[in-house]
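Fill in residues.
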């Protein structure tokens, strides 16, 4: 097992990784920008190193500074968390070239799944269903028009290196295709440095279902069920739950079994999440995330398995400590992402937290890195915490979630807690009758 792990991230995920390390008896190193000198993760870690000024490009994305921090603190391994460098194959390679263990999959698998076209082709060859679309990137407008006519409108123009809705445009008829392609290329180039695009059939009003897997280097692979991440705004997840109310037992067992076989054939190592669109009993693969997910706690709540701990153990060379038959699914869990944003306009709300009180009680968990008198900086993602609740049934879970949100006090900055409370009063949500566009319709966005 590792003696010391450097956590190359900030916020709640840095605290989450620190806790898993301490549970394993591992010392931790926090890295931080000048803006995060007083952040919770820097206070909890055994050591901390400033790696640059506030902008992420000069600190949390500064690979030489992170490697230097690992060297001067004699760390054994680096955990990237999520976001920032977590799915950067070049970073993973540099980490290993400098003699540290990258807590994640191999650079080759990160690179493969980071290319949406190659990922789609790979999983299709491994027996997973994919969304109909172009056979690789589209070279020119003439090819795009032919592909779109073949698969039928509406279609999505998507960036090969895209994510989070960036570099993606919906097209409802042929007259809008060329403009959408130009816009997607420009946005992808600006966001990812790669303007390559491809086309996919737009599946109308689907659910967003993802399967969590865990694999070791010896070929053992298990799944930990599915999560429903359909409550989204502009392709950003707002709330997640497990299991999904949209699937029956036959469907969930069938797709999970196919995913396990595909991941085993891939020779994958570590935690991973395969994401699908689901409609009318059919699944369509869209991407694989080669890192720990923001929403991983709902899986932990229904399985009792610490995913970050297992991620660290696997990276250290340990085999999985259980088989699929050992995993038991218990009850229901829901996670609400709490952002420092206006709940109506979604404008960021940085500033000083003047009062802070977390909810508690049976089945309630809060993953956060804020505290009273903490100043939320304006430089990073607005996620400041997550409320996760567990109950024996979905209805019990919903009642517990309302109580937890009502108890949660965060004063001094605006948060999305009122939005979550409003959602709980809507019959469609309470009954599990929603899709990936439902939230935008509910809040009046197009």
């Amino acid at each position: 097992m590792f003696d010391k792990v450097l956590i190359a991230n900030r916020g709640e995920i840095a605290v989450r990784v620190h806790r898993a390390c301490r549970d394993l008896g591992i010392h931790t190193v926090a890295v931080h920008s000048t803006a995060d000198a007083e952040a919770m993760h820097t206070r909890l870690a055994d050591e901390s190193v400033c790696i640059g000024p506030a902008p992420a490009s000069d600190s949390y994305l500064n690979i030489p500074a992170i490697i230097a921090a690992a060297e001067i603190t004699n760390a054994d391994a680096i955990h990237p968390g999520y976001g920032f460098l977590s799915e950067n194959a070049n970073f993973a390679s540099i980490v290993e070239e400098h003699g540290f263990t990258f807590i994640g999959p191999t650079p080759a698998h990160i690179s493969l799944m980071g290319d949406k076209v190659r990922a789609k082709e790979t999983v299709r060859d491994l027996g997973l269903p994919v969304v109909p679309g172009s056979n690789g990137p589209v070279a020119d407008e003439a090819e795009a028009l032919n592909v779109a006519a073949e698969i039928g409108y509406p279609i999505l123009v998507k960036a090969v290196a895209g994510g989070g809705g960036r570099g993606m445009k919906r097209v409802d008829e042929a007259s809008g295709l060329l403009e959408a392609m130009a816009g997607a290329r420009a946005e992808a180039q600006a966001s990812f440095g790669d303007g390559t695009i491809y086309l996919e059939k737009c599946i109308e009003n689907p659910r967003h279902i993802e399967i969590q897997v865990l694999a070791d280097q010896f070929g053992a692979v298990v799944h930990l069920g599915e999560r429903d991440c359909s409550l989204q705004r502009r392709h950003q997840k707002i709330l997640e739950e497990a299991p999904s109310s949209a699937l029956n037992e036959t469907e969930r067992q069938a797709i999970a079994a196919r995913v396990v076989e595909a991941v085993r054939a891939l020779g994958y190592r570590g935690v991973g999440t395969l994401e699908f669109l689901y409609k009318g009993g059919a699944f369509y693969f869209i991407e694989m995330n080669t890192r720990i997910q923001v929403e991983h706690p709902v899986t932990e709540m229904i399985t009792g398995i610490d995913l970050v701990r297992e991620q660290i153990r696997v990276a250290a060379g340990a085999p999985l400590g259980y088989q699929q038959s050992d995993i038991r699914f218990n009850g229901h869990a829901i996670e609400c992402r709490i952002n420092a944003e206006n709940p109506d306009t979604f404008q960021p709300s940085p500033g000083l937290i003047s009062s802070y009180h977390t909810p508690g009680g049976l089945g309630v968990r809060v993953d956060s890195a804020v505290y009273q008198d903490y100043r939320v900086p304006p430089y990073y993602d607005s996620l400041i915490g997550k409320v996760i609740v567990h109950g024996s049934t979905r209805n019990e879970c919903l009642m517990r979630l309302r109580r937890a949100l009502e108890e949660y006090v965060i004063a001094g900055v605006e948060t999305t807690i009122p939005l979550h409370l409003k959602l709980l009063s809507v019959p469609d949500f309470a009954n599990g009758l929603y899709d990936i566009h439902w939230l935008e319709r509910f809040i009046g966005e197009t």
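The radius of gyration is 21 Å.
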